[in-house]
UniProtKB/TrEMBL annotation:
<dbReference type="InterPro" id="IPR016518">
    <property type="entry name" value="Alpha-L-fucosidase"/>
</dbReference>
<feature type="domain" description="Glycosyl hydrolase family 95 catalytic">
    <location>
        <begin position="299"/>
        <end position="711"/>
    </location>
</feature>
<feature type="signal peptide">
    <location>
        <begin position="1"/>
        <end position="18"/>
    </location>
</feature>
<dbReference type="Pfam" id="PF22124">
    <property type="entry name" value="Glyco_hydro_95_cat"/>
</dbReference>
<dbReference type="InterPro" id="IPR027414">
    <property type="entry name" value="GH95_N_dom"/>
</dbReference>
<dbReference type="InterPro" id="IPR054363">
    <property type="entry name" value="GH95_cat"/>
</dbReference>
<dbReference type="InterPro" id="IPR008928">
    <property type="entry name" value="6-hairpin_glycosidase_sf"/>
</dbReference>
<protein>
    <submittedName>
        <fullName>Glycoside hydrolase family 95 protein</fullName>
    </submittedName>
</protein>
<dbReference type="InterPro" id="IPR049053">
    <property type="entry name" value="AFCA-like_C"/>
</dbReference>
<dbReference type="GO" id="GO:0004560">
    <property type="term" value="F:alpha-L-fucosidase activity"/>
</dbReference>
<dbReference type="InterPro" id="IPR012341">
    <property type="entry name" value="6hp_glycosidase-like_sf"/>
</dbReference>
<dbReference type="Pfam" id="PF14498">
    <property type="entry name" value="Glyco_hyd_65N_2"/>
</dbReference>
<dbReference type="GO" id="GO:0005975">
    <property type="term" value="P:carbohydrate metabolic process"/>
</dbReference>
<keyword id="KW-0732">Signal</keyword>
<feature type="domain" description="Glycosyl hydrolase family 95 N-terminal">
    <location>
        <begin position="21"/>
        <end position="267"/>
    </location>
</feature>
<feature type="domain" description="Alpha fucosidase A-like C-terminal">
    <location>
        <begin position="727"/>
        <end position="776"/>
    </location>
</feature>
<dbReference type="Pfam" id="PF21307">
    <property type="entry name" value="Glyco_hydro_95_C"/>
</dbReference>
Length: 788
């Protein structure tokens, strides 16, 4: 009776909640990634389809990758087998003589030894309810505030409620079937319908069902998954298809299945001392232990622990936008299908903001890997772009929204990934390719420390990737001011990147202007191999500035290093060069064209999300140049038509206080790039949009960041500046969001603000909490709202 009441209350609460996705039909098995709603606890991902009578839950395990040392003992992380840095002087000489050198293949590794691999799905949990096929009164919902997925329907005169969640406290996913009448027989199974060689093995015993396999023959990564019925009141039997049949006893009205999984991947074994093996112990004992830890628990206790854990994080921040059209009463798929960027819908815009935060909570928790290109959710064995870690915008964008919305504390997986997976092999890459200290990587990373170049220069020659990620590292410190974390985690990473760039910033022998430039460099995925790419100059300037600004909290006593940083920063070729048509140049050579609508905004990284340009936001010459550059880049349609490129543009326009364009592009992104379940997808290329457009989660996270940029501008104060820390509230709030409010917006220096705005989008109320440093808070017109 207690359990029935709990589920009934939860269902009512979901119907009343505005922060949910819901549908009146099951997800489409032929189009899972655009119709199913995702669940996750960092390590485990699940996508219940809500099928009546024969349900399917697509399962993921965060570390399940093919490739790397699990594919070949010859894997060396994409590095060349011997030093190649002696080729650098010749490469640079060609650049100094001709401005470009598109042949830097001497720095590539041998493709024979790449073995890059890819993230892949684990399999499916299947749950069958005997005699249930026809149904009515169907509802499927995902509550973003609780992380609870529920499917409700009526069949054969009985009401069924299916509740699913993936709990971080208990490290399992739970699937509960409940009815107001005794349940028919229930059959559960674990299936793998995609692998053929090597095939996985499904099995069944009195305790439950098991799926075990490996990604490749012989040395492939081992995965092990188990599903078990909790507190079953009657004897279960195994079927010939290795499923577990739980018969009806004519009395019991509910059954709970718990699922756990693991692999033998061990991120801590990615060091030279471990021969870069990344190989841990067989996962089976740990999976059994996880199941045993919950097998005597009640469903309600797991449910309550999960909701408390999830909501503690989700409730750290609240955005309230109006719902004048009563969209809360319309199924999510209908809202998404009918969304028109010429009109907009603040309810949908708020919902997608909340969804970005929800997805991050589900895909980034202690002990997990950081979210990849699809978070942790894929239904494929071979997802697009390997569902890897692109570090030329995508990984960075995944984390842009976290600090301001109270999710900074759960970013630990990113720092662990850099330290354990990237730094060890990346240190070798720096030595082999550049004879440099520190560590380096390029455009793409897998989970096995792939730090070499794997494509032509335009696609992979991107040694600034670590420097860009230092923006995320800096934000962790700047918003929380945790000096212990900075001394032990943040600063050592920042220093290592700084050491690399002190070595790799070289005198510009083409311009002979006495400045230091990066060479060879490629602006991410765009243009020639050259020198002085604006993107690099901006990022490296910021890295050096962070070292200088945080010196007192770093614990570093090497003042010679500090002076070297200061001297090198002072000699950098400027990251702001205004070009022939009034733009911020992308390269030191003025190659920019006013009709170049490339997807990346690499030359504006110092405007957003960085600050090397943004600190000049009061300089009209600079802001006009940013405006010209953004105008030239278009609306994010012409090149790839991705969601992430659109939301990046939104944030940049918002920081220019251009509400009209920022809001138009935000709406345009929703209209063009978000599926019926809210996932961001590509809308062009070789994939037909209707069924197979690839899902890429960066635009879900980047969308939340773009909305934040419309709500607040809060830039770091440069180390050499005496300026007061100034926060602008409401730089680009549209009138359509009239009367909205925010609670829990974190600001730099610690603390948070709550604020609201009038019907014109002008902030008129603000409250500051727990902020210990001097700060001035103003509205978009410069009116001081609060000065502490």
């Amino acid at each position: 009776m207690l359990l029935t009441g709990l589920i009934a209350l939860a269902t009512c609460a979901q119907r009343a909640s505005a922060r949910k996705l819901w549908a009146t039909e099951p997800a489409d098995p032929a189009n899972i990634i655009m119709t199913a709603y995702p669940l996750g606890n960092g390590k485990l991902g699940a996508m219940p389809l809500g099928l009546v009578g024969e349900d399917i839950v697509v399962l993921n395990e965060h570390s399940l990758w093919s490739g790397g040392p699990f594919e070949s003992p010859d894997y060396i992380g994409g590095n060349p087998p011997a030093p190649v840095y002696t080729a650098l002087p010749g490469i640079r000489e060609t650049i100094w003589n001709t401005q470009i050198n598109n042949d830097i293949s001497a720095l590539y590794g041998d493709p024979t030894y790449y073995h890059y691999g890819n993230y892949e799905t684990l399999g499916n949990l299947t749950v069958k309810i005997a005699g249930v096929s026809r149904y009515s009164s169907y509802n499927r919902a995902l509550d973003l505030e609780t992380g609870i997925h529920q499917t409700a329907f009526t069949s054969n005169g009985a009401k069924f409620t299916i509740t699913t969640f993936c709990t971080f406290p208990d490290q399992v996913c739970a699937y509960n079937v409940q009815s107001n009448k005794p349940l028919p027989a229930v059959t559960i199974g674990l299936q793998d319908n995609q692998r053929s060689s090597p095939s996985s093995n499904s099995s069944c015993d009195a305790n439950g069902v098991r799926l075990r396999g490996q990604t490749q023959q012989d040395i492939g990564m081992i995965f092990d998954a188990r599903a078990q019925v909790l507190n079953r009141p009657r004897k279960a039997t195994c079927t010939s298809s290795h499923e577990l049949l739980v018969p009806s006893d004519g009395k019991t009205a509910s059954v709970t299945v718990v699922y756990a999984a693991g692999t033998n991947y061990d991120q801590k074994k990615g060091t030279k001392a471990s021969n870069y093996s990344f190989k841990g112990v067989d996962p089976a004992p740990a999976v059994v232990s996880t199941i045993q830890a919950v097998e005597k628990k009640s469903f309600s206790s797991m449910y309550n622990a999960h909701v408390k854990d999830h909501n503690t994080l989700f409730s750290q921040f609240t955005l309230n936008l109006p719902d004048s059209e009563h969209s809360v009463s319309v199924p999510t798929a209908t809202l998404m299908e009918n969304y028109d960027y010429n009109v907009g819908d603040p309810f949908v815009e708020n919902l997608l903001f909340d969804y970005g935060r929800y997805l991050f909570i589900g895909s980034c928790r202690d002990g997990s890997l950081p979210p990849n290109l699809q978070g942790i959710w894929t239904e494929n064995q071979f997802p697009a772009w390997s569902s890897d870690y692109h570090v030329d915008v995508n990984v960075q964008m995944n984390h842009w929204h976290t600090e301001q919305t109270g999710l900074g504390d759960i970013q630990g997986p990113l720092w662990d990934f850099i330290i354990d997976t990237w730094v060890p092999r990346g240190t070798e890459t720096a030595e082999l390719l550049y004879d440099a200290p520190g560590f380096v990587g390029f455009s793409n990373l897998n989970t096995f420390g792939f730090t070499g170049q794997m494509n032509s220069a335009v696609w992979s020659n991107y040694p600034a990737s670590a420097a860009w990620l230092m923006q995320n590292v800096w934000n962790r410190y700047d918003y929380g001011r945790d000096t212990h974390w900075w001394k032990t985690v943040g600063y050592p990473l920042m220093k290592s990147v700084a050491e690399y760039w002190i070595h790799e910033m070289v005198p510009d022998l083409y311009s002979n202007d006495g400045t230091l430039v990066a060479a060879p460099c490629n602006s991410p995925e765009h243009g020639w191999t050259t020198f002085g790419c604006t993107h690099y100059q901006q990022l490296v300037w910021e890295v050096f500035d962070h070292i200088i600004d945080s010196w007192e909290d770093s614990g570093d006593t090497n003042t010679t290093f500090l002076e070297t940083v200061k001297e090198t920063q002072s000699k950098l070729s400027p990251g702001i060069i205004i070009g022939w048509f009034g733009q911020i140049q992308e390269w030191k050579i003025g190659w920019d064209q006013p009709n170049d609508e490339h997807r990346h905004l690499s030359h504006l990284v110092g405007w957003y999300p960085g600050y090397s340009i943004g600190t000049h936001m009061w300089n009209k010459t600079v802001t006009d140049a940013v405006n010209v550059s953004l105008t030239a880049r278009g609306n994010g349609t012409a090149d790839s038509n991705t969601g992430w490129e659109k939301v990046w543009r939104v944030a940049c326009w918002a920081q220019l206080n251009n509400t009209d364009i920022a809001y138009t592009y935000l709406k345009y992104a929703i209209d063009m790039n978000y599926a019926n379940n809210g996932f961001s997808v590509y809308t062009s290329g070789s994939w037909p949009y209707e069924l197979a457009a690839p899902f890429q989660i960066d635009a879900n996270f980047g969308y939340s960041a773009a909305v934040l940029a419309m709500l607040i501008t809060d830039l770091p104060v440069p180390s050499a500046s005496n300026a007061i820390h100034t926060v602008i509230l409401g730089p680009a709030i549209p009138s359509a969001w009239k009367g909205g409010s925010v609670q829990g917006m974190r600001i730099r220096g610690g603390g948070s603000v709550d604020f609201s705005w009038d019907n014109n989008g002008l902030v008129n109320k603000v409250a500051l909490h727990n902020h210990k440093e001097s700060v001035k808070i103003v509205d978009v017109n410069g009116k001081v709202l609060l000065h502490k």
